[in-house]
């Protein structure tokens, strides 16, 4: 792959601006499990290898199981996820694929029925932030480092 720009080096203030929102969300009371599931699922949809690698490792560090990470792209076909998590994952998919018809009333109402308004707002912002990171990573071809065996 050809080398592309490094936005962090070229425009550190832009990176810092996104990090302010990232740090807010990290400290906002959003559950670590929810935050990592959002990051992994959006990154799967967007095909962001860099973010998938990073957030899968972070999720494991926060206690997420390998099994749930492995089946996350087929979450509807398992009983591994709570009703809250299912609502968050459905919302993550629709916000991430917003050009495919937006967020359906059904998905929004399901999320609103299991999350309070403040938490729902945080979830939507979390989905938005990871999609921004995915787009930065993919457009600049950031690659994960290969783990030592």
UniProtKB/TrEMBL annotation:
It comes from the Bacteria. Transmembrane segments: none annotated. Pfam families: CMD. Residues 12-94 form the Carboxymuconolactone decarboxylase-like domain. GO terms for molecular function: peroxiredoxin activity. InterPro entries: AhpD-like, AhpD_core, CMD-like. This is Carboxymuconolactone decarboxylase family protein. It comes from Mucilaginibacter corticis.
